[in-house]
């Protein structure tokens, strides 16, 4: 077994190339034997429990296949560790734009995150508010659908993305439509310096208002988060600035003036600034206690604080990212783990809640992903059937029966 294949979940099928990947899916379809699709299993605890006997892992499909620093694009086989891609980019002063989260601290998993898994889950961190989500940086994919057919969509430069945008459709589909064999991303230069303005003592509503003011300014805020009293004894409101030191100094000064109605702001730079954003990115503030269920709620920022307030005493801990557009919160992992209350509070807001961490039996009993209206559910089932008519790939991971 290769070193890469050894990273796959125990007992997994580990095809060595795209052809073997297609053959594995085609064989499973012929045998009517559903497969759990995985990279190295770092996000295995997200979604409804597996409804298959075998795991198909891309962990042996490794290697950077394309890197053109001048064109700012990079491609890699799906099982390539994310860390390898990030290190390759760092050597040339570049980075993935969407700041992918590392789910391992929250889920307690040990597998090495892969680029294919990152794309399949549309993993996007704090920089999403400035640079877009993972799917917005994904410009090309190769994948194997549920027929066992190899499909290519997009290209190696942005101008090649035309027609049906399968790239965007597949990103965030959690391996239910196809198994990525290769992904291609656009990238950006890495900033020379990172700094964070920190406001202290704001309640949730005032904090979100401060974040909105910063994000609405011309001063290029690339991260906007709030750590309330359930996380920090004195709440902290964080606005990130990136670029060369001279630019940061000017913008920080102007932002301080703009945010004066919310109080004075401290400026934190370099390692300390980077550390706090890693913690925001990886949701480490809600990792403990591990017996708690963890919810990830996307909502219009202006409605975030009132949504949390509507939950009353339900959350034990919570914090805000994306200027308030992403709320992480914990609940007791008993009953429905607060699903009814959370989704009732979301009604009419346009938001949606995902049960990000919970025991398998709870994830089997509760809608992990936001329930869809009937018409949208029919559309989702139809799309699934067009890519995977026999439900071979990750059946039921997102929605029961799909």
Automatic annotation (TrEMBL):
Gene for this chain: glcE
Keyword Flavoprotein listed: yes
SUPFAM superfamilies assigned: FAD-binding/transporter-associated domain-like, FAD-linked oxidases, C-terminal domain
PANTHER family given in the database record: D-LACTATE DEHYDROGENASE (PTHR11748), GLYCOLATE OXIDASE SUBUNIT GLCE (PTHR11748:SF103)
EC number: 1.1.99.14
Keywords: FAD, Flavoprotein, Oxidoreductase
Record protein name field: Glycolate oxidase subunit GlcE
GO molecular-function term, one example from the UniProt record: glycolate dehydrogenase activity
Pfam (any one): FAD_binding_4
InterPro entries: FAD-bd_PCMH, FAD-bd_PCMH-like_sf, FAD-bd_PCMH_sub2, FAD-linked_Oxase-like_C, Oxid_FAD_bind_N
Organism expressing this protein natively: Alsobacter ponti
Domain FAD-binding PCMH-type: 5-190
Oxidoreductase recorded as keyword: yes
């Amino acid at each position: 077994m290769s070193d890469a294949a050894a990273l796959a979940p125990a007992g997994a099928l580990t095809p060595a190339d795209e052809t073997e990947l297609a053959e594995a899916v085609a064989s499973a379809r012929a045998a009517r034997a559903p497969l759990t699709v995985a990279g190295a299993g770092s996000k295995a605890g997200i979604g409804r429990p597996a409804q298959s006997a075998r795991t198909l892992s891309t962990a042996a499909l490794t290697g950077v296949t394309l890197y053109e620093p001048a064109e700012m694009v990079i491609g890699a086989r799906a099982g390539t560790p994310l860390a390898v891609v990030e290190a390759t980019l760092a050597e040339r002063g570049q980075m993935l734009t969407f700041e992918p989260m590392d789910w391992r601290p929250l889920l307690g998993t040990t597998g090495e995150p892969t680029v294919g898994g990152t794309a399949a889950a549309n993993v996007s961190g704090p920089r999403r508010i400035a640079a877009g989500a993972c799917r917005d940086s994904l410009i090309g994919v190769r994948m194997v659908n549920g027929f066992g057919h190899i499909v290519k969509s997009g290209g190696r430069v942005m101008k090649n993305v035309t027609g049906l945008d399968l790239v965007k459709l597949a990103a965030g589909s959690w391996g239910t439509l196809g198994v990525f064999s290769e992904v291609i991303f656009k990238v950006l230069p890495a900033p020379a310096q990172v700094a964070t303005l920190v406001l202290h003592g704001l309640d949730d509503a005032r904090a979100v208002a401060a974040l909105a003011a910063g994000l609405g300014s011309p001063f290029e805020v690339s991260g906007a988060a709030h750590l309330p009293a359930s996380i920090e004894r004195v709440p902290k409101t964080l606005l990130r600035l990136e670029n060369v030191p001279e630019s940061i100094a000017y913008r920080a000064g102007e932002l301080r003036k703009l945010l004066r109605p919310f109080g004075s702001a401290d400026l934190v730079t370099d390692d300390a600034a980077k550390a706090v954003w890693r913690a925001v990115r990886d949701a480490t503030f809600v990792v403990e206690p591990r017996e708690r269920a963890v919810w990830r709620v996307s909502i219009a920022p202006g409605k975030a604080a009132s949504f949390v307030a509507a939950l009353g005493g339900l959350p034990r801990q919570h914090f805000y990212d994306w200027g308030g557009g992403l709320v992480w919160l914990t609940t007791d992992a008993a009953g429905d783990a607060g699903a009814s209350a959370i989704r009732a509070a979301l009604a009419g807001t346009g938001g949606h809640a995902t049960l990000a961490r919970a025991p398998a039996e709870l994830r089997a009993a509760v809608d992990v992903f936001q329930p869809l209206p009937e018409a949208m559910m029919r559309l989702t089932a139809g799309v699934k059937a067009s890519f995977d008519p026999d439900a071979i790939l990750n059946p039921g991971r997102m929605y029961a029966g799909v």
